[in-house]
Amino acid sequence: MALTFSAKAKGTCKEFLLASCLPAVSALMGNSAVEIFDDYEERVNLYMLALGGPSTGKTQSHKNCITQPILNSLEGKVGGELLLEDASSQGLFKFFSRSTNRVALCAIDECQEWFKEVVGFKTSASAPAMKRLLQCYDGSHWYETKGNTNKRVGVPSAALALSCFTQPHPFLKYVMPKLVANNNGLLDRFLICLPSTAPVSISVRMESSRNLRNTNLSSFERLYERIYAKHNTGDRVKYCLSREALDVYVRHMGENQTQEGAAANGHSKDDKNIIRLAAVMHVLYAVIGQALNQRTDDIPDKISESTLNEAIALSGYFEKERAILQQVGTYSSNSCLFWYCHA
């Protein structure tokens, strides 16, 4: 309910709010992980992409979920860089070299030119290569040889959270076909949506703003402070699925995958994103609930069955959106793109 009030008060939609908020929270959770069983754990950093036309609330979501609470507030309080300003490969490497225990948050409210460089549509050094984004999703190591010496510099784990917004027509025309053609799994790592949006009247925004004020959740600043403090001081935080949640996840994997076709259809990445979403939603639910009740309890380490089911449903929504946009992006006809983007 609080997220609904927040979206309406800011003149945007819930999907855009989630596309900003969830990657931000995943980055603030640092190097935390979800332990599925003894030999398998999953990181929590998310890649999200939301498509929308002009004046649909993309910039407002970016401002209210990322720029204002993180860049203008939290960074000053923690005394360190959290939001990546230079989204090039060099800028990313420098961030990790300076902040070895942090997950980089890259938030771009108009990302089509950056994505063109990522997929190789245009040549530039202003964006990391697709291979690097694949590695940063997994939190792989990143070392480079310094100068003419054999000395390696870098970090043992470089993880990235992405919050990207763009307009649908140029993305589907130029970027999506390249992502599909490469078939390297990068597209499968993204949670993607193109929500139906409608202008929010000033009266609805005013009423939602009043309702939001009554919930003690008028901004994300205090929520983000709690999340950052919990996950970036002391030992690495590990979450786990409750016994009921683990049973649900195992059943879901069995229904969703076949031994021959799971990886080819991208389902293995969808299963990873379910766990990552569940962890982020678990933490966000906990701090929102405590804020509403004016408490500061510790965040439970077990993810509930209900939260996992919600993560499965939300992941399914993004998965279907991605599949539709993937089909549309493979069409060469501009008329098809125009029809879909304006339907």
Question: How would you describe this protein?
Answer:
The chain is α/β, with parallel strands linked by helices. It has one domain: Rossmann fold, CATH 3.40.50. 54% of the residues lie in helices and 13% in strands. The protein has 14 helices and ten strands. The strands form three sheets. The protein has a four-stranded mixed β-sheet with strand order 2-1-9-10. Strands 4-7-3-8 form a four-stranded parallel β-sheet, sandwiched between helices. The protein has a two-stranded antiparallel sheet with strand order 5-6. A hairpin with a 2-residue loop joins strand 1 and strand 2. Helix 2 runs parallel beside helix 3, helix 7 crosses helix 13 and helix 12 packs across helix 13. It is globular and about 60 Å long. The two termini are 29 Å apart. About 1% of the residues have low confidence.
Q: Summed up, what is this model?
A:
With 343 residues, the chain is of the alpha/beta class. The chain has 14 helices and ten strands.
